[in-house]
């Protein structure tokens, strides 16, 4: 492999050190993405409760699309990380190039379909006439940037598979700063710009998404990981097959949670615009406090993928165990903090006392299970990186369809909106325990296989 690729190898050195070095830039990266969303929420909230409710209704739909595209990116990132571990640079270039082509096709299809179903989709989610009009104003523009979103998912996950988290963070930070700058100009019509309100927020977002894509493509071109020569169709199909083998289950898994969020949002909607606005604020605050878990789950993926490709299974087990311990410590700490500070955070976005009270109730109940939620993220990311998407999909399906939705519905009948929050908490705790058991058994079986393989004696395995 070329020298620049060797610098990204994660198959040697301290596993804990790699986790820290990759997690910190990824933490910064995700923090900027959350800041991106919080900025939009803050400025839109100044327009009024109806506008905030409209944006809150778009959140599960946007989260679903983002999750689908990130699932595709996760699939590409996993096979690319394994190829890096194997030392196959040509395969890395082929997979990345073919993945970008595939994502462009998917992005065009997603944009066309999404624009066609705005009204029926958001009507089903509970949008009334005035709020629905605002939603259409925002999403009609936002969907036009879906192509940028889908293609950048492949580009950014290739960069992540290389272990180049600092580059990833720089690109996202630049896009976030652009969004923060453009939001007030387009929303409120400052400095001579027209006052576009929700449409202005959408335009700023599309420009920022385009910035991320441009930055990712420039870096990959610089690293000579984009091929401009045509490949045989058989090779393209093979690459697409490898990516989709992991990408489709990962996308389905990722989409399940936002879809359930949409169903939960429709449950919350019966309590009025204040409840929808509060749930939107709580969801965004939750994203903020969960960034440590997300960053760790993103950081563990290239470590697991590269070491799995290099057949260093003991290092994979080490990475999972270290991450597990951290989830428990961080989860407990953040639950305590949120119990005392949720009201103060909520009041920053909306002064309506009913909205603030609902946010406070949410943050007093759901964060109890954040450690378990973090463990599920780590286990899911590890399974995908191992090239084993099935357990990840099963855990997510069980969490949402078998446990979360039924418990939330039961809780609503018993205790109203607070019962919905209790259902979320219990679902996280139950699935978190199952994730620990399943992941440990998977890694244990693989370690046993390695120990009894002729080319890998127990002594050699322990040295890895």
What does this structure look like?
With 464 residues, the chain is mostly helical. It is built from 18 helices and no strands. Helix 12 packs parallel to helix 15. The protein is globular, with a radius of gyration of 22 Å. Residues 1-7 and 451-464 have low confidence and may be disordered.
What percentage of residues falls in helices of 4 or more residues? over 70%
Could you tell me the mean pLDDT? 82
End-to-end CA span: 22 Å
Low-confidence stretches: 1-7, 451-464
Please give the largest β-sheet: none
**Overall number of domains:** 1
Rg from alpha-carbon coordinates: 22 Å
Number of strands: 0
Count of individual helical segments = 18
**Class of secondary structure makeup:** mainly alpha
Portion in beta strands: under 5%
Q: What best-fitting shape do the alpha-carbon axes yield?
A: globular
The ordered H/E elements are HHHHHHHHHHHHHHHHHH
């Amino acid at each position: 492999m070329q020298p620049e690729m060797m610098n990204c190898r994660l198959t040697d050195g301290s596993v804990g050190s790699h986790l820290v070095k990759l997690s910190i830039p990824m933490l910064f990266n995700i923090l900027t993405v959350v800041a991106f969303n919080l900025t939009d929420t803050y400025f839109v909230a100044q327009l009024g409760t109806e506008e905030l409710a409209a944006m809150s209704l778009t959140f599960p739909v946007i989260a679903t699309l983002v999750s689908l595209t990130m699932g595709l990116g996760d699939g590409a990132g996993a096979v690319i990380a394994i190829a890096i571990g194997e030392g196959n640079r040509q395969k890395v270039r082929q997979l990345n190039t073919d993945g970008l082509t595939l994502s462009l096709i998917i992005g065009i299809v997603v944009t066309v379909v999404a624009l066609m179903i705005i009204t029926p989709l958001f009507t089903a989610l509970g949008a009334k006439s005035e709020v629905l009009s605002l939603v259409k104003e925002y999403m009609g523009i936002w969907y036009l940037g879906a192509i940028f979103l889908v293609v950048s998912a492949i580009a950014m996950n290739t960069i992540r598979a290389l272990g180049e988290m600092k580059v990833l963070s720089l690109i996202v930070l630049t896009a976030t700063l652009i969004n923060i700058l453009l939001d007030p100009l387009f929303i409120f019509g400052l400095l001579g710009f027209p006052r576009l309100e929700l449409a202005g927020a959408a335009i700023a977002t599309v420009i920022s998404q385009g910035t991320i894509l441009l930055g990712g493509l420039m870096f990959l071109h610089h690293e000579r990981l984009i091929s401009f020569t045509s490949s045989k169709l058989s090779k393209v199909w093979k690459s697409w097959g490898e990516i989709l083998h992991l990408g489709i289950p990962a996308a389905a898994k990722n989409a399940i949670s936002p879809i359930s969020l949409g169903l939960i949002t429709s449950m919350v909607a019966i309590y009025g615009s204040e409840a929808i606005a509060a749930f939107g604020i709580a969801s965004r605050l939750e994203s903020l406090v969960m960034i440590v878990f997300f960053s760790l789950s993103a950081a563990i993926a290239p470590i697991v993928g590269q070491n799995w490709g290099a057949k260093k299974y003991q290092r994979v087990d080490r990475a999972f165990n270290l991450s597990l311990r951290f989830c428990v410590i961080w989860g407990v700490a953040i639950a305590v903090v949120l119990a005392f500070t949720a009201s103060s955070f909520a009041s920053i976005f909306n002064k309506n006392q009913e909205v603030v009270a609902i946010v406070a109730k949410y943050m007093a109940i759901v964060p109890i299970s954040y450690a378990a939620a973090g463990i599920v993220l780590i286990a899911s990311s590890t399974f995908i990186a191992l090239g084993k998407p099935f357990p990840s999909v099963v855990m997510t399906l069980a969490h949402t369809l078998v446990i979360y939705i039924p418990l939330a519905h039961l809780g609503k009948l018993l205790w109203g909106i607070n019962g919905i929050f209790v259902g979320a908490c219990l679902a996280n705790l139950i699935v978190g325990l199952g994730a620990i058991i399943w992941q440990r058994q998977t890694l244990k079986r693989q370690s046993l296989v390695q120990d009894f393989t002729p080319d890998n004696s127990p002594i050699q395995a322990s040295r890895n």
